[in-house]
């Protein structure tokens, strides 16, 4: 009976027991291969932009000279093609350099695991736009919730403490080094219409006012966009909070939005009469603010009189 029990004991394989770091590294290297770029698909809803900037030009030059030093990360799809998880800039650089293949490490990952790896790798970039953080945090938090079997709530609030996402958001906050409330503020930006979100990326609208604006409906946001253009101004935090309050009370009409945007802000400087630098640089600094138009009109009148005298002499 004792012999029978001993015969069922599974012994660890000798090679596995004494596997070295070198052998493990060799096993990892076996998954690195040159994959035709034509067989690699973009990651669905990838939130990070691949910009044609100076950094990309330098990367293309580097790839031409020495190739791709750090492999991209992909996973194999059911249809036999590959899905790019990290390395979107490297892939684009290879395309611009005229390469047909990309050095990749093939990993076996689930959809949610792939999302987490994709976000982690891209958050290492030196420059990240607010919109990129917004969608990246949202994708990763939802993936973490699914992995933990927690329900997903779309109503993210900077002061939310609902139990079903408290643990996941705490984990994410610790990993990315931002407070949980700040993460929720970023995620709120995903509720902005594209035109306003682009203004946030371009630093035309401050972050905190943008968070408050995100609570407005799509129609209200587009009305606000028109009001911003008409008044040549963006909302302050106080104005954004006021609009959100009116919205919550179901009193935010087009007229109210326009009225709020017409309010004079504290320490607001009077807008220059002209935006064209070719005009503004010719106006002396001694001309008081608000009298630029009079100065330009007088200058044009003087110039016209000069032209008339010149024509009279030519006759």
Automatic annotation (TrEMBL):
<dbReference type="GO" id="GO:0005694">
    <property type="term" value="C:chromosome"/>
</dbReference>
<protein>
    <submittedName>
        <fullName>ParB/RepB/Spo0J family partition protein</fullName>
    </submittedName>
</protein>
<dbReference type="InterPro" id="IPR003115">
    <property type="entry name" value="ParB_N"/>
</dbReference>
<dbReference type="GO" id="GO:0007059">
    <property type="term" value="P:chromosome segregation"/>
</dbReference>
<keyword id="KW-0159">Chromosome partition</keyword>
<dbReference type="InterPro" id="IPR004437">
    <property type="entry name" value="ParB/RepB/Spo0J"/>
</dbReference>
<dbReference type="InterPro" id="IPR036086">
    <property type="entry name" value="ParB/Sulfiredoxin_sf"/>
</dbReference>
<comment type="similarity">
    <text>Belongs to the ParB family.</text>
</comment>
<dbReference type="GO" id="GO:0003677">
    <property type="term" value="F:DNA binding"/>
</dbReference>
<feature type="domain" description="ParB-like N-terminal">
    <location>
        <begin position="33"/>
        <end position="123"/>
    </location>
</feature>
<dbReference type="InterPro" id="IPR050336">
    <property type="entry name" value="Chromosome_partition/occlusion"/>
</dbReference>
<dbReference type="Pfam" id="PF17762">
    <property type="entry name" value="HTH_ParB"/>
</dbReference>
<dbReference type="InterPro" id="IPR041468">
    <property type="entry name" value="HTH_ParB/Spo0J"/>
</dbReference>
<dbReference type="Pfam" id="PF02195">
    <property type="entry name" value="ParB_N"/>
</dbReference>
